[in-house]
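Figure caption, in words: inputs first, then the predicted bound structure.
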Amino acid sequence: MGPIPLLLLLSFVVSGVESEEDYTWHLRKVPQVLNKRTVTLSSPEFKAEAKPALNGTCGIECQSRLPLASVSDLENFLSYETVYENGTRTSTEVYFRDFDVQAVHAVMKDSHSRGKRQVYGMDSRFSISDKQFVTNYPFSTTVKVSTGCTGILISPKHVLTAAHCVHDGTDYIKGAKKLRVGILKLRSKRGGRKRKGSKRNKRAAEVKPSFQWTRVKRTQLPKGWFRGVTDDVAVDYDYAVLELKRPHKKKFMELGISPTVKKLPGSRIHFSGFDNDRPGQLVYRFCRVSDESSDLMYQYCDAQPGSSGSGIYIRLKEPEKKKWKRKIIGIFSGHQWVDVNGMQQDYNVAVRITPLKYAQICFWIHGNSADCQYG
Ligand SMILES: *[C@@H]1O[C@H](CO)[C@@H](O)[C@H](O)[C@H]1NC(C)=O
Ligand SMILES: *[C@@H]1O[C@H](CO)[C@@H](O)[C@H](O)[C@H]1NC(C)=O
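Bound structure (2-acetamido-2-deoxy-beta-D-glucopyranose present):
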């Protein structure tokens, strides 16, 4: 699709949402994920090759035959590694407080609603070509990760992306050693920043969005992603948080706990990323979720490699207010070949932000759990 009437598109998406349903961000008390012990490990080798697609992923059907995870399993999966810019690596064991494992197991029982599995239709991605849109909220929260992925701004200096963008399950990938994040900024050809309200429109016409790159100071990812720890549920842990060396000064998007599909307006999710087949363009799309488990969502949104790691977001009402607010409820893991009853089927897979993952990511951002009690 060419340049799009974006306002039209956005108003369509919003109007689809107005109904009797209770589409509200109900804040709940979340469990706490606390550090038990941190040990220093040897520096990573950074030898793994980046892989865009994962074959033979144990997806929703395959996972549904596995025994339910116990609290100690989950504490093991949410234990995490931290890698600093200087190569220092630590491993941290966690424990939970105020966590009810029965509630987690119950959540999906009554909500498991399988949507119709349609095949991929026409390409429904929209290149956001308007440079004002690209550099303004919400699209401005989308960032490029130097290993060829996408990420999303979740704090003044943190970026959420997919774990496979930095680690292949066994080792950190080569490009993760000098990891950088690119933020689209409007800059004139001479390199100076665009001055707002400039009378000289001719100059403004030359202004083009380009990436401003910032080094990553620290990378954190859950052990659940590592080979030999989870295996069949590794994809549930395909997320990582990058801390930037300098704050980015842009508006970021808040995290939210992923509601079940029934509670998504139009059963739809949204995300934008830097798809490989459209170099230099920010690509936006939205589509319906066709299946879900407690940790994953399947959908047939059109997506190409490069958009992995995108933040999946939705818009719900703020409690007690009329305003709608976007929050990130998942991470786009990518196009994957999924094991369905021993056969390989292709899906686009997204990792949901569960209460535990919310607590963990929030802890990584704030360094304490006092700021992470409700989500
Ligand atoms: C993954 O599996 C599919 C279907 O079996 C196959 O067509 C594809 O080439 C495989 N991709 C890789 C990278 O192995
Ligand atoms: C690397 O950086 C971390 C975090 O700033 C620090 O704790 C550690 O001592 C540093 N290690 C080396 C070898 O400089």
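The radius of gyration is 20 Å.
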